[in-house]
Amino acid sequence: MSTAIAHDEHGEQIFSRFDTRVVSRLWSFVRPYRRVLVAAVLSVVAYTAVQVAIPVTVRHAIDSMLGHAGSPLSTVMAAFAMLVALNGGLNFLQEWVAARLAQRVIFDLRRAMFAHLQDVSLSTLDQTQVGRLMSRLAGDVNALQEFLETSVSAVGDLFLLVGIVAVLLWMDLRLGALTLAALPALLLVRLVWLPWARDKFRRAREASSSVNASLAENINGIRTVQENRRQAVNFARYDVKARENREAQIGSSRAAQVMVPLVDTLTGIAMAVVVVAGGQGVLDGTLGVGVMVAFIFYVQKFFDPIRTLSMQYTVMQRAMAAGQRIFEVLDVPLHIVDRPGAIDLPADFEPGIEFRGVQFGYRPGQPVLHDLNLTIAPHQTVALVGPTGSGKTTVTALLHRFYEVNAGEVRVGGHDVRDLTLDSLGRQIGMVLQEPFLFSGTILDNIRYGLPGATREDAIAAAQSVRAHAFIERLPLGYDTPLGQRGRNLSIGQRQLLSFARALLADPKILVLDEATANIDSFTELEIQQALALLRRGRTTIVIAHRLATVRDADVIVVLEHGRIREQGNHAALLASGGLYAKLHANSRGSFDD
Prior knowledge:
The protein is α/β, with parallel strands linked by helices. The chain has helices spanning 2-6, 20-30, 34-65, 73-119, 122-125, 130-171, 173-179, 183-220, 222-227, 231-257, 259-284, 289-330, 392-399, 422-428, 443-447, 456-465, 469-474, 492-506, 522-536, 548-551, 571-577, 580-586; strands at residues 353-360, 369-376, 381-385, 407-412, 415-416, 429-432, 441-442, 482-483, 510-514, 540-544, 556-561, 564-569.
């Protein structure tokens, strides 16, 4: 399933046929609101019945005025006034109930997608384009919402058509048959229109996706664009796509609107039939004036639902394709889940870590770690160093169980991580990454992200401990300062300090620092060494770093290369051994990548 999401959906098939599987899955979200659905259908049926009844009362009113009706005019007019009032009230009711039903179903669908995606394994998300997931969460859900909101009214349109046909044939069989003679022509036009319209709508959807993707890419990479002065080139490329989109949207509008004049033409023809044939019947005395006037009203109403149902067919097809893509997301398997009988990591566990014969690769046949054996004693600081691609970050990802090992086992506190609940494991392992991710909200919200129930005083104390309090206090609103997208209104160093404060406040027993000081200048790094010492105190710490200054004080330094441990020991022992670490130090280089 993940591959289906990840692959390019070239030429999105928005004109899928009616898919019973999609409808069945969608029904599982509608089922809890069966009563609301029944209320919506009943209100539509009542509204349709009123619409069908109004021209009949007009007929009786005219016949009453001409002295040909059994009911007095006052009674007929009272009934007419009541029907008009009901028409307005029921119209509002059916629209409101249908919208309420659609919003409830879409609310549950969005929650289900969001909840599912939060638990999808990183191995699946690594192969997935975020833009396509966003398209499914937004555009496809909106397509289903439109379908749900209009489906109930489409049922009403079908009832209206059947009701009008029945009343026309009941009032006068001959004139009714003549009026409905225009239907075969409408069906023929529809058969010709559909294939042509499909192509136009498909082109419009593809062009819209292309221009939106280009716009999103340009905005996300605006720093690089301005840095390389690519504005003119990017604008020229976007201009081509925008023009293609304009032409495609014009073609789509033309296809959508071409049915309107055609239906109006058929309406005029049917109206002419009623006037000519009905007028002749009135003159001959075989048809009442009231019947003829009622026929004119019905003809005007008859083609409106046909026009609406033609558009609803397009909405239905788009919704079927959207539903397929949405349920593909919901069907993505959750590879990383709690095992049956998984236990919580005890609060008083000794934070020792052990890798036993671990083998792992992100893709089949491409191993990253080879038979890794590593023991980290409780409260020890271990540094992982080595060239890019040696498996340093992978080690910490397996520790947190972001991925499952292919062979061997990872143990925390004496327990295989697969036997522990993910929640308890997450509470005891804190991570500070090279590029800290800050969320929308205030600085205080971000510090308390790992521990939402923490007090303001606790958050301020954590910030003070990691030397972040001073710069926060200088901000206009202090701890209540709202952050821009990903905290872009702060420097990289300031964002990193906030991530330190977040980790300290969460108080995990195991701490992972993945290049945590790589983006901090040397002056700031010296300033926070004391804070890092505080952060590591009483915790088992894994430090990933390239710069020697960051790792020389570690209890154990593990040198990785090509997914294997080349050597390990403290700074002095590794220098004495004359291995890779010693060579780096002797060359006075600042990074293992060098």
